[in-house]
Amino acid sequence: MTGIFNFFNAAQRQTLFWLMLLVAIWAPVVYLLGAQWNVFEEYNYGWAVPILCLYLAVQKFPSRPPVGAPGWKKTAFFLLVTTGLVYWVMRVLQEANPVWRLASYGLALTAVAMTLLAIYLTQGASRTRHFIFPAVFFLVAVPWPTPVEGAVIQTLTRFNASLVVEALSFAGVPALTHGNVIEISTGMVGLDEACSGIRSFQATLMVALFLGAFYRLGRARRWWLLGAGPALAVAFNFTRTLVLVFVAARAGLPTMERWHDPTGVALLVGCFLGLWSVAAWLARKSKKQKTENGKQKAETPDAGDRESEIRNQTADIGISAFQGFKISVFALAVWVVAWAVTVEVSTEVWFHSHEARGSRTIDWTARWPVENPTLQTNIIPKNALRELQCDQNSSVSWTEEGGVSWQAFYLRWLPEDSFYGRVKVALSKSHNPAICLPATGLQLQAQLDPVLLTIRPGLSLWFDRYVFTAYGRNLYVFFSQTEDLMGNGEASLRMTHLARLRAALAGSRSYSQKNFEVCIAGAETPAAALWLFSARLPELIKIQPAEP
After folding, report:
1. Would you list the DSSP string of 75-109?
2. Which domains does the chain have, with CATH numbers?
3. What percent of the chain is modeled with pLDDT above 70?
4. Residue 460: which of 334, 380, 364 has the closest Cα?
5. Would you place residue 302 in the very low, low, confident or very high pLDDT band (cuts 50, 70, 90)?
């Protein structure tokens, strides 16, 4: 195998071995996280992060310290093997749960650890410290933990809505807030995630960290830059939301929709240009301070620096051999490539073998009471469908005797075989009444115990139950999520960390999803709402013919 590399000189071979090692570690991580970067618009910037990491590493390469011997050789190699095993586990968890943030962080952290351990074993401690930031910088591309992200979104959205309403009132435009909704004379304006500022907030954090390293700012100035990024994001987002709501109040909601995307682009461009200006100003201040203190270094290295650079390059070319323990970049690259192939092949074999033995539930779909003269078809807003990314959707409302009002939703995500397709299906599990309905102005009063209701022999569905209030009236919500492959029981629902772990152990991948939701207004108590729903449910479910 070594004969293949004889076409390259020593320096080129060294570079090629490092590329093999880094690609084996990072290519699967970038591919898996890339599915989330595609789906979540606030993380689209993730595709740029690997390139920026590589740029930062190249930028730091000329100033790297000399090669040194690792002080804890056997310990470092043991940690490398252990980290590789942890990565293996996280790879299986990510395959079963494509948007599970815990598995995503596990993959990214283990990849960072393996990269730094590889540098430590072959280059020593000084070089490892030198390249820590380019490796750790990748973590800004990992989607935030859901509880943290949800809390930030809700906080920013309500803060933004309150500021906008105050500004509108000052300008003489009547407006009221209902949760994440602003009520104006022409209608209701809902503030989605884009209007919360979370997208520009996360992206500016990434840009602030990069610019701090790019301009080689000191620690204090980097903290100032990190503070300026979110502040600019909040300010620009407030301006954008104020413009949109003002346009809606003066010209109507359809006109506001035409302004939505252009103002979003202007927000991002203005925010990033402002942050870049702050970074450049801090860099000039830093350079001026160094000049005044007589610490400004010459741009051209002196003879001693050039001699040190030559020694560094010479040391890089050779094979690292240490007393009592020998390892080379070539050997480590071969080991890592073999490990990466083993991880991917074994993961696919694990899931494919279990899925071949899986069982399917009775296929069903929603059936609406077309015989009811009050039945109305509802149109789900385009922005909501864009977030849901479902393949089929239906929503209706009707009224029954006693003045009881019903509203129902049926959403369907068709089976997907590719990992990127399964991300869309897995994302559907994050849509539930506790998250979505408060964004429409409803207030969650209670989440009741779930119930298992039988529709037909062999077909029973679990329903989560919620109590919301809207304009002084209780709304009882029944919500069910199901998958086509149910041979793994509750693990296939993936609603808790334990269920996600069980899904991985059972070799279950999320291929498809059905969301069925019914809202009842007019029932006197939760028990009365449950009785009404359980009595009507068999008529709202239609059994599909079995596949031949």
Report:
1. HHHHHHHHHHHHHHHHHHHHHH-TT-HHHHHHHHH
2. 9-143+327-355 (no CATH), 146-292 (no CATH), 364-543 (3.40.1000)
3. 85
4. 364
5. very low
Spatial separation of the C-alpha atoms in residues 146 and 144, rounded to whole Å: 6
**Tens of pLDDT along 387-397?**
788 999 999 99
Cα 62 from chain centroid? Answer: 34
Host H or E run for residue 395: strand 392-400
Burial of 75 (0-12, 13-18, 19+ CB in 10 A): exposed
User: Model pTM?
Assistant: 0.76
Placement of tokens 């772990």 in the chain: 501
* pLDDT tens for each residue of 417-453: 889 888 888 888 877 888 788 767 788 999 999 999 9
Main-chain phi, psi angles of 126, to 5 degrees: -60, -45
Mean pLDDT for the stretch of residues 370-396: 90
> Is the torsion defined by CA of 155, 159, 160, 162 positive or negative?
positive
Please report the DSSP string for 291-358 in residue order. HHTT-PPPSS--HHHHHHHHHHHHHHHSPPEETTEE--HHHHHHHHHHHHHHHHHHHHHHHHHHHTT-
User: What is the sign of the dihedral through the CA atoms of 158, 162, 165 and 167?
Assistant: negative
**8-state DSSP, 510:** -
Strands (E), 458-508: 459-470, 473-482
3-state helix/strand/coil string of 10-51:
HHHHHHHHHHHHHHHHHHHHHHHHHHHHHHCHHHHHHHHHHH
